[in-house]
């Protein structure tokens, strides 16, 4: 029974192996489509498994992994992002021979994420994060022949390793302060004693914030993000921008909103400051970007700042807001990247903002999706991005973190400068090249998943009620170990 | 009930006429325009006489009736009804408006016969009559203000009737704007009244005024001063008088009806209507009288040098209203109304006669190009002479009785009254001088050089009959109210003017004043005859004496220049300055600065992000230090 | 019958239906828009017919859950204030659609769809019974205007559109913070976490709380209005937008700011309003004088009318800041009046500009000679715009200033400067285009045609009706206005004799109104 | 509580916890310094290894202090992870080399801004 609870990560990890093997098949058709199909099917099975496990609270793997509402919700987020990433990569021009590795790496990373979401101890958190990081280093550099891809992989590796070291060092100190790696036990020991004046704990908290902040690409630990996002293959960027960010936040929640909740005062302001700095730096730096991927990278930095507001609140409302906003954020970011991916296939410089001039009028559907994504990211109601921000501000206000809410609001104003620039270029700009290289089939998986993201942006808002109930249950599960 | 219904009909007729004429699809037949234009006003006059006799048949204390059509609005306890008040005062005004009005509109049918926009003229005339009737019939201050503004609008439209002429357009705008200033004063007065009394109804305000406002209280003074701002603007009293001479750009019948007989006297009407309030505000009343006295002198002095026949009459109007204001300010309300009535007769006569001349000379208005018209236009000459004698206060013409009554009663009304009476007597001399200057230059002396081409033609009956009727009225009208005889006007108005001050001049004073004013007028006429009666030679000989004064007079005491340089140009400059500096620098500046700040930050971050791994690692470490510091500090 | 929901949804459906209309099929697009706007208008008129005139509280309450656990709900209702704004919106949008149907813009489907979306946003805004919903619609209406300016505007449209949005959003995002904070603080006081406007009216915030919470809202409101010096978005947006958009911005969108003050500022944060009373009065007065002066000196017709609108909105803001039932009633009247008049003014400017091809005042002249009907209607509009006594605008301005005068006579006196200047600049507009020697092409071409008449005549008819019988509006709104102003009156210490409404009204029970939903309000 | 016991000798070994921590801290800082000043990617990887191993020492030290095995298990996991990272890192370095690019991280600055 307990092992059954660990089924999702196990299934996904197995799927990764199967996909890898499928990529080695002699038949070209299998080599081309097999890995993707296997990976998607395998992950969907894991998703179904997770859904079936909804409502259960099971501890498995000797306390290292657990199934609760939170982990199930995140499993679905991760799998959703991974599946859409894979769908967006279909027909990618790069070699068929790498299909197996590509699908396997994405799936492996997903397995690592799932482990973090269900982590019951510090080891599992670190392990999961490293599994996905290592997979992502490779994914970034997957287009080895492209200098930029390589650069982004190596940069990510080096800076990422430093970040991981910070995280690890922080985890080590957390273990050292409490004498346990088990999250539940850490929580219990922190509740019992007064740790207000414990320098080791301060070091632990600081280093964990840095390490996770790095993974979440929060400022000032964000500087790798634009470079890596720009250099990596765009579907990988989309995956990183959504799933990886979600991992960082589930780790944040698992650690801070879980065992460290009783010493909230030691980390609340610090996380708040990181959030504020991220919002300001991300939004301001994005203003002058002309590369859409880079712009979205900075936007993701700012969005990390918004999500951190919810973490800083350190309440169920905060966690709930983070969860909802992550869902919304994933939908809007994937939608934006999906359109960029499509544009990249149509023209050479598809990631340049300039190539989107007049795009909305030429392709109202894709332009519409992009517009929806941008408006939602900017927080226009009634899109899901707005509801997320509204909840985050509410969580901050509940904790009287007024300054955070105000900075968030001002940051949103700044963000209009670049989000609306995209919209403006698409709809108000002079029409670009009249004859794109090739038209994607409407029924292609790429188009369908793009549409799905667009629908999600609206749907998450329309069905905010039930969705929030789910998020709330997930958030509640943080507090009851 | 009957009389209010009739009042509503009288009010509605010209409105219906105006609407009918302006909304008539296509170009209506000229006869139709004529019939509607004259018919509505004339019918109004007939109905008004019925009202008049109905009121006359009642006992004086029952000579009033109000009727509301509907509750216009009720906001926070302030009820405003669309209501009329029929009382002796309003009926008297109605009689003037519809009576003189129908004569003038009739006259216009011929005067405007050549005009392209026939129906527009009658539509606007009808609209004016409606507005003026609304003004006098309103039973509360609100609809008084509405009528007040509507006559301003009608005046604007008719001054700017020849809208292709830039000078007419400018004059119209000037008249409108100055009248809006007056409206503003009136509206503020209404606010103060509403605040003080909680009502704008005449009946309620006047009934409770003595108890709610102490005599001479600040509120009473303020109300009356603010009301008088409106009166001054409408009745062209200093310093808001500058629009009236320019208003002569309108067709002559318009000048006769609006800018002589009716609209410009609305200010007098209002002061008389609010006699209860003015009675409680001695300082404001004094101010009214002083303004009247100053205006009558200033306007008369300017009239002396005018070369345009209509502008002479315009300034004389300003001056004559000054007399009425003197009377009203001194509390001599019925005297003011009597003079108003007489003025309506003789000034309408003068304007219409001037119109006959202008018509005969195909639009010529300058006195310089007239002369010796007596032989060519006998009828007009006699009519004009009657008008001049009347306005100069020569007995037994109408002006003598009304002006004389004002002056003699003023003599008895305290020191200010004496001062005003003296001013009035000086004014009377000036009036006689400039009127006969006009008369002699137009009709006397030899014909102008080169004669008249085409030959001046006598007008038709439609113009002649109104002139004739008015000439008769200007001649005998004064006998309505003669000293020690029947005081018909005063008696009639008595119910509407409860606070009639019991100033009664002694017989000696009365005789002396009359003698003084008549004799100075006669001397002035003599001088005018000597100077102007014989042709241009003598006039030109003396043209350069007192050049400085003459210049000031020609510049109309520099009021326009002062306004232009003190109020209008600074306003323009301020607006331009706002557009030049405040708009881009202040309102745009904040935004631009914020945007610039953000962009500078963005460029700074752009530079920092130099692509070096070590920078990134360093930022990580620095960030760790900051977070650590915050953790330690915030603990 | 869920009146309001239907009224809000019809334009949305019309906008969505534009997606199905085949490209290039202008006729169908027009038909869809006309049907959408027309049906909305008819529904709103029917709703008005069922309106309970004397009831001060919410009516036609529709309530449906959305994300109830976080206070997000679909609560829409109207009271005596908002019903008129709903009528104004449906009426003016119908006019705008009529105008557009005869002058089909480039890419008509998209434009008409955006117009319909804008209508939905405004209708939602004016009927929101929930602060978050209010915010949702507040922002929602921004988006279509952004696109309309950006896609159909003039040469500087890109900058104008983004400036318009960013400027507005500065205020509105802080408003979002305030909205959240309001609920949080109210939660601390009452123990109920709600965004329901009716429920929040009874919350007794401390003075600093009230001030700070209102501050967030206030910025959004004064930017939307706009009041000087927050009108930085106005010149560019007015200069670059299509004339229909300018008209709607001036006529309806600006009312959102005023409505916010009335619906949220006065009843929810009376102490804050007491604190900000004089700052708002001051800004309103500056707007009046400044707007008038700048309008006077504008070179183009549309900018003249645009800045005149700044001045007129200053009057409306003054009426609310006066904290007096009479002034507030005047402001409500004037909201409708200004909307009707300014749309007519812009319509005429648009007609003249399209027929002569010129917008500069000095380039046009003497049109009255050959276009008497245009001239006549323009005169009526001019007079209404400068609020000549007897016009509908005067009814509003009179009570605004009369109410202001009662406590702050100086403010009313200063505002009179604006009244006088209104005549100066409006006559400049009228005379220079209509009078004088003919300039700017063949005036005969400018004369009104049927397409113009269908736009202008309904507006003129409304103006005349209100001029003749404003009690229809005032009577149906006074109860709500009194209720809205009463708390602030208490806060500024007005004597009890002046306070017309003591008890804050609850929604009209569903059995009395014909609304289907349950009430969203809290009990006393 | 813990801070007070940092300097007390552990019964079993006699090596106080603070010594472990001092060593680990020194290694961590050394690694950081290496990351900051080195340009060769191989040496950078080495520096990162140093940082990871600093954590390992801390983990082991704490594990000893609390007398639990968690920390040691953690350290073992870290070793595996570090190995994996190095493998990937070396692979990428080889790829860089194959692209005939300079083995200098400062040269990896095409992506910036």
Task: Please explain how this structure is put together.
- The complex is a heterotetramer of chains A (481), B (635), C (524) and D (113).
- Chain A has 481 residues and is mostly helical.
- Chain A is built from 20 helices and two strands.
- The radius of gyration of chain A is 21 Å and the shape is globular.
- With 635 residues, chain B is mainly α.
- Chain B has a two-stranded antiparallel ribbon with strand order 1-2.
- The mean pLDDT of chain B is 89.
- Chain D has one domain: Helix Hairpins, CATH 1.10.287.3510.
- Helices cover 71% and strands 0% of the residues of chain D.
- The radius of gyration of chain D is 18 Å and the shape is elongated.
- The mean pLDDT of chain D is 84.
- Chains in contact: A-B, A-C, A-D, B-C, B-D.
- Chain A binds chain B through residues 155, 158-159, 162-163, 166, 196-197, 202-203, 205-207, 209-210, 213-214, 219-221, 223-224, 226-227, 265-270, 273-274, 281, 284-288, 414, 417, and chain B through 595, 598-599, 601-603, 605-606, 609, 611, 613, 615-617, 619-620, 622-624, 626-628, 630-632, 634-635.
- Strand order across the biggest sheet of chain C? 1-2
Distance between the termini of chain B: 87 Å
User: How many individual helices of chain C?
Assistant: 20
Helix fraction of chain C, binned, reads: over 70%
Tally of contiguous helical segments of chain B:
25
Oligomer: heterotetramer
Overall shape of chain B: it is globular
Widest sheet, order of strands of chain B: 1-2
Number of strands of chain C: 2
As a percent range, the share of helical residues of chain B equals over 70%
Taken as a percent bin, the fraction of beta residues of chain B is under 5%
Q: Span between N and C termini of chain C?
A: 27 Å
The biggest sheet of chain C, with number of strands, parallel, antiparallel or mixed sense and barrel status, is: 2 strands, antiparallel
Largest interface: B-C, 56 and 67 residues
* Dominant shape of chain C: globular
Please state the CA-atom Rg of chain B, rounded to the nearest Å: 30 Å
Structural class of chain C: mainly alpha
Could you spell the SSE succession of chain C in H and E letters? HHEEHHHHHHHHHHHHHHHHHH
Identify low-pLDDT runs of chain C: 511-524
């Amino acid at each position: 029974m307990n092992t059954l609870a660990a089924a999702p990560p196990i299934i996904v990890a197995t799927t990764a192996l199967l996909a890898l093997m499928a990529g080695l098949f002699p038949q070209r058709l299998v080599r081309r489509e097999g890995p993707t199909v296997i990976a998607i099917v395998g992950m969907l099975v894991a998703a179904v498994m997770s859904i079936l496990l909804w409502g259960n609270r099971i501890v498995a793997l000797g306390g290292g992994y657990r199934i609760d509402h939170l982990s199930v919700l995140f499993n679905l987020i991760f799998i959703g992002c991974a599946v859409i990433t894979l769908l967006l990569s279909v027909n990618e021009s790069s070699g068929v021979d790498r299909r197996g590795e590509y699908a396997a790496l994405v799936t492996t990373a997903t397995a690592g994420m799932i482990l973090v979401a269900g982590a019951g101890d510090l080891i599992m958190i670190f392990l999961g994060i490293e599994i996905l990081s290592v997979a992502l280093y490779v994914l970034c550099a997957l287009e080895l022949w492209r200098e930029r891809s390589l650069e982004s992989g190596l940069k990510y590796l080096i800076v990422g390793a430093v970040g991981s070291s910070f995280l690890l060092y922080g985890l080590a100190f957390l273990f050292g302060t409490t004498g346990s790696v088990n999250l539940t036990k850490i929580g219990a020991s922190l509740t019992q004693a007064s740790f207000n004046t414990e320098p080791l704990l301060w070091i632990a908290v600081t280093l964990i914030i840095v390490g996770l902040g790095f993974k979440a690409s929060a400022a000032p630990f964000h500087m790798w993000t634009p470079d890596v996002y720009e250099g990596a293959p765009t579907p990988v960027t989309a995956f990183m921008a959504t799933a990886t960010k979600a991992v960082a936040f589930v780790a944040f929640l698992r650690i801070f909103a879980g065992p460290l909740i009783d010493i909230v005062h030691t980390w609340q302001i610090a996380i708040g400051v990181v959030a504020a700095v991220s919002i300001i730096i991300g939004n301001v730096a994005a203003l002058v970007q002309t590369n859409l991927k880079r712009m979205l990278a900075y936007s993701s930095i700012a969005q990390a700042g918004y999500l951190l507001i919810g973490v800083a609140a350190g309440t169920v409302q905060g966690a709930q807001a983070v969860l909802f906003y992550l869902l919304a954020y994933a939908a809007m970011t994937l939608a934006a990247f999906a359109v960029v991916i499509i544009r990249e296939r149509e023209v050479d410089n598809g990631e340049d903002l300039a190539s989107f001039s007049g795009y909305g009028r030429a392709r109202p559907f894709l332009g519409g999706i992009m517009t929806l994504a941008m408006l939602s990211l900017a927080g226009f109601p009634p899109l899901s991005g707005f509801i997320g921000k509204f909840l985050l501000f509410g969580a901050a206000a509940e904790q009287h973190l007024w300054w955070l809410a105000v900075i968030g609001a001002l940051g949103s104003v700044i963000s209009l400068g670049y989000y609306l620039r995209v919209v403006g270029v698409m709809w108000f700009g002079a029409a670009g090249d009249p004859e794109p290289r090739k038209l994607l089939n409407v029924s292609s998986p790429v188009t369908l998943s793009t549409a799905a993201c667009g629908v999600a942006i609206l749907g998450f808002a329309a069905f905010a009620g039930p969705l929030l109930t789910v998020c709330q249950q997930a958030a509640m599960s943080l507090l009851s170990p | 009930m009957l009389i209010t219904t009739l009042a509503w009909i009288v009010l509605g007729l010209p409105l219906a006429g105006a609407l009918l004429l302006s909304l008539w699809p296509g170009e209506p037949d000229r006869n139709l325009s004529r019939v509607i234009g004259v018919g509505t006003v004339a019918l109004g006059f007939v109905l008004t006489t019925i009202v008049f006799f109905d009121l006359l048949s009642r006992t004086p204390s029952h000579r009033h009736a109000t009727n509301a059509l509907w509750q216009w609005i009720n906001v926070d306890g302030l009820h405003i009804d669309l209501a009329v008040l029929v009382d002796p005062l309003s009926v008297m005004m109605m009689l003037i408006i519809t009576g003189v009005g129908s004569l003038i509109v009739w006259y216009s049918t011929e005067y405007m016969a050549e005009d392209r926009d026939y129906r527009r003229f009658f539509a606007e005339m009808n609209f004016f009559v409606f507005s003026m009737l609304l003004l006098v019939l309103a039973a509360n201050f609100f609809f008084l203000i509405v009528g007040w503004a509507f006559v301003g609008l009608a005046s604007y439209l008719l001054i700017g009737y020849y809208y292709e002429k830039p000078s007419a357009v400018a004059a119209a705008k000037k008249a409108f704007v100055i009248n809006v200033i007056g409206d503003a004063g009136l509206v503020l007065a209404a606010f103060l009244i509403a605040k003080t009394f909680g009502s704008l109804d005449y009946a309620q305000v006047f009934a409770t005024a003595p108890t709610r406002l102490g005599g001479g209280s600040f509120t009473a003074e303020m109300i009356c001063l603010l009301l008088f701002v409106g009166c001054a603007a409408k009745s062209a009293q200093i310093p808001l008088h500058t629009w009236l001479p320019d208003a002569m750009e309108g067709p002559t019948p318009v000048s006769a009806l609006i800018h002589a007989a009716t609209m410009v006297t609305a200010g007098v009407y209002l002061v008389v209507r609010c006699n209860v309030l003015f009675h409680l505000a001695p300082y404001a009343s004094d101010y009214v009288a002083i303004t009247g006295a100053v205006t009558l002198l200033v306007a008369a002095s300017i009239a002396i040098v005018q070369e345009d026949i209509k502008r002479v009459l315009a300034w004389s109007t300003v001056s004559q209203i000054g007399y009425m204001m003197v009377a009203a300010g001194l509390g001599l309300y019925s005297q003011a109304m009597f003079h108003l009535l007489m003025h309506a007769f003789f000034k309408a006569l003068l304007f219409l006669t001037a119109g006959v001349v202008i018509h005969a000379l195909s639009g010529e208005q300058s006195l310089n190009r007239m002369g010796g018209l007596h032989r060519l236009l006998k009828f007009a000459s006699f009519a004009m002479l009657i008008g001049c004698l009347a306005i100069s206060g020569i007995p037994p013409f109408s002006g003598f009785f009304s002006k004389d009554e004002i002056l003699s009663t003023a003599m008895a009304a305290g020191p200010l009254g004496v001062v005003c009476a003296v001013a009035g007597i000086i004014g009377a001399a000036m009036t006689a001088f400039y009127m006969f200057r006009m008369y002699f230059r137009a009709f006397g002396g030899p014909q102008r050089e080169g004669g008249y081409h085409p030959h001046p033609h006598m007008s038709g009956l439609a113009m002649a009959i109104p002139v004739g009727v008015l000439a008769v009225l200007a001649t005998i009208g004064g006998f309505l109210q003669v000293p020690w005889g029947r005081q018909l006007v005063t008696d009639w108005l008595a119910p509407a003017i409860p606070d009639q001050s019991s100033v009664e001049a002694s017989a000696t004073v009365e005789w002396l004043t009359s003698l003084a004013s008549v004799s100075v007028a006669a001397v002035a006429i003599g001088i005018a005859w000597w100077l102007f009666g014989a042709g241009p030679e003598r006039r030109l000989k003396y043209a350069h004496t007192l050049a400085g004064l003459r210049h000031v007079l020609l510049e109309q005491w520099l009021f326009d220049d002062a306004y232009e340089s003190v109020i209008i140009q600074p306003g323009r400059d301020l607006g331009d300055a706002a557009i030049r500096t405040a708009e881009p620098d202040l309102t745009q500046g904040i935004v631009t600065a914020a945007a610039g700040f953000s962009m500078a930050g963005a460029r700074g971050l752009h530079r920092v992000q130099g692509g070096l791994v070590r920078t990134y690692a360093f930022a990580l470490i620095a960030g760790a230090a900051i977070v650590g510091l915050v953790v330690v500090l915030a603990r | 019958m869920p009146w309001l929901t239907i009224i809000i949804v019809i334009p949305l459906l019309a906008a969505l239906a534009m997606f199905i209309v085949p490209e290039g099929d202008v006729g169908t697009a027009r038909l869809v828009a006309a049907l959408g706007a027309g049906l909305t208008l008819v529904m709103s008129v029917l709703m008005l017919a069922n309106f309970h005139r004397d009831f001060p509280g919410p009516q036609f309450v529709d309530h449906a859950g959305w994300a109830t656990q976080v206070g997000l709900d679909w609560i829409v209702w109207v009271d005596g204030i908002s019903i008129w704004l709903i009528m104004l919106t449906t009426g003016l949008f119908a006019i705008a659609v009529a105008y557009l149907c005869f002058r089909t813009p480039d890419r008509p489907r998209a434009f008409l769809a955006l117009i319909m979306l804008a209508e939905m946003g405004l209708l939602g805004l004016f009927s929101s019974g929930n602060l978050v919903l209010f915010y949702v619609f507040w922002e929602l209406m921004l988006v279509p205007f952004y696109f309309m300016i950006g896609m159909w505007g003039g040469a500087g449209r890109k900058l104008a559109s983004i400036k318009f949005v960013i400027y507005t959003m500065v205020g509105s995002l802080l408003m979002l913070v305030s909205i959240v904070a309001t609920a949080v603080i109210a939660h601390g006081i009452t123990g109920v976490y709600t965004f329901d406007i009716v429920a929040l009216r009874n919350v007794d915030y401390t003075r600093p709380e009230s001030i700070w919470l209102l501050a967030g809202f206030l910025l959004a409101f004064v930017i939307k209005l706009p009041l000087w010096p927050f009108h930085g978005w106005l010149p560019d947006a007015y200069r670059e937008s299509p004339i229909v958009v300018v008209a709607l911005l001036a006529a309806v969108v600006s009312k959102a700011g005023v409505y916010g003050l009335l619906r949220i500022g006065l009843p929810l944060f009376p102490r804050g309003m007491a604190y900000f009373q004089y700052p708002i009065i001051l800004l309103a007065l500056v707007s009046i004088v400044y707007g008038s002066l700048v309008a006077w000196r504008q070179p183009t017709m549309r900018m003249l009318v645009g800045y005149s609108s700044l001045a007129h909105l200053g009057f409306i803001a003054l009426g609310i800041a006066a904290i007096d039932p009479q002034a507030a009633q005047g402001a409500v009247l004037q909201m409708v009046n200004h909307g009707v008049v300014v749309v007519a003014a812009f319509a005429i400017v648009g007609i003249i500009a399209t027929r002569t091809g010129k917008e500069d005042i000095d380039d046009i002249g003497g049109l009255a000679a050959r276009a008497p009907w245009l001239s006549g209607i323009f005169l009526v509009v001019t007079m209404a715009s400068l609020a000549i006594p007897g016009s509908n605008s005067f009814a509003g301005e009179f009570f605004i200033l009369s109410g202001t005068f009662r406590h702050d006579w100086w403010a009313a006196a200063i505002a009179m400067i604006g009244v006088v200047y209104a005549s100066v600049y409006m006559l400049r507009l009228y005379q220079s285009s209509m009078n004088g020697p003919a300039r700017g092409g063949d005036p005969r071409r400018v004369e009104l045609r049927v397409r113009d008449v269908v736009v202008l005549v309904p507006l003129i008819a409304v103006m005349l009706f209100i001029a003749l019988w404003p009690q229809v509006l005032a009577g149906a709104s006074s109860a709500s206005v009194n209720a809205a102003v009463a708390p602030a009156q208490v806060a500024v210490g007005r004597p009890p004799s002046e306070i017309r409404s003591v008890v804050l009204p609850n929604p009209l029970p569903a059995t009395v109104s014909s609304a289907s939903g349950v009430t969203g309000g809290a009990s006393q | 509580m813990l801070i007070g016991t940092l300097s007390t000798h552990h019964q079993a070994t006699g090596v106080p916890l603070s010594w472990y921590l001092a060593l680990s801290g020194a290694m961590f800082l050394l690694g950081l310094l290496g990351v900051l000043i080195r340009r060769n990617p191989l040496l950078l990887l080495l520096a990162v290894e140093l940082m990871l191993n600093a954590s390992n020492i801390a983990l082991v030290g704490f594990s000893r202090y609390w007398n639990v095995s968690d920390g040691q298990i953690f350290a073992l996991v870290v070793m595996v992870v570090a190995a994996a990272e190095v493998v990937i890192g070396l692979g990428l370095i080889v790829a860089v080399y194959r692209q005939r690019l300079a083995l200098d991280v400062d040269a990896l600055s095409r992506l910036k801004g």
